[in-house]
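Suppose you are handed only these lines of text.
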Amino acid sequence: MEEIKIFSPGTVANVGCGFDVLGFCLDTIGDEMVIRKTTEKGVRISKIEGGFELPLEVTKNVAGVSALALYEAASPNFGFEIEIYKAIKPGSGIGSSAASAAGSVFGMNSLLGNPFDTHQLTYFAMKGEAIASKSEHADNIAPALFGGFTLVKSTHPLEILQIPSPSDLYAVIAHQKIEIKTSEARALLPNEIPLADAIIQWSNLGSLIHALHTNNFALIGSALKDVIVEPHRSQLIPNFQTLKTAAHEANALGTSISGSGPSVFSLCQGKAVAHDVENAQKELLKSTGIPFDIYVSKINTQGIKILTQ
Ligand code: ADP
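From them, the structure of the protein bound to adenosine-5'-diphosphate can be written out as follows.
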């Protein structure tokens, strides 16, 4: 195989009560990438399309940095060329950088005959993600590579748990096209949290994991609450409370911030409810004048998909 074309999906990190550990994979929004073997050794990014300003320089692009980490470990006697067709806006809160970092290593691994397992690919991709977020974390990378819901039990050593989810679970993503600096979103977080809040949070996280295992939609809804991060970060997201209310009135199970925002996600039982939530949030956002995108997606249990090879 000389060339592979893949779909590298968007992802939702944090998922309300699972700050920095939980994430899930989307189906209908993602980038496409072409990875090709070259006779010339090394890694090169030859094309980036999509209208966003992203560096072609390998050491400045997350796709390039993760690719270099894998390349060094594999040490093949040929090189790789990467093309990125970006659909996920950088900084939207749905794992734009993770899609690129995970996509390049997935594609290269396939062209090499899959010498590395998904945990090793996660490790390489985290090297790329680190240049976008200044720290190695896997809460977007893991769901992109493993699919479905993932829990990062530990980063060093890397331990990822795959969490099952009901087949009829859908997500609605409302992305208002405004910029929130990750540093600003981080700075808002408290250094210490009251024990009473911590107890509520780990009760909810444990309940959410149990609910996903047992297809308990009512429990997904009641557990999808974040008393630690959301009260602070939601201040940076215009219309957050009204988006949440609109989703609730349209029977969403729950709504919270995707990653560090500005995207807001809702989980829903079934496609029909997801479209009701989409329509309610669309109506609301139309009246605000802020440009936006809304996506409805089934949970993508596969992760990155091979389009052609
Ligand atoms: P998101 O909030 O959607 O997860 P991130 O904040 O993780 O997005 O990543 C966006 C940052 O990563 C931007 O500063 C962007 O310039 C940088 N970056 C570097 N390479 C890429 C890439 N291939 N795709 C997306 N962002 C990239």
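What can we learn from it? The radius of gyration is 19 Å. The chain has a mean pLDDT of 96.
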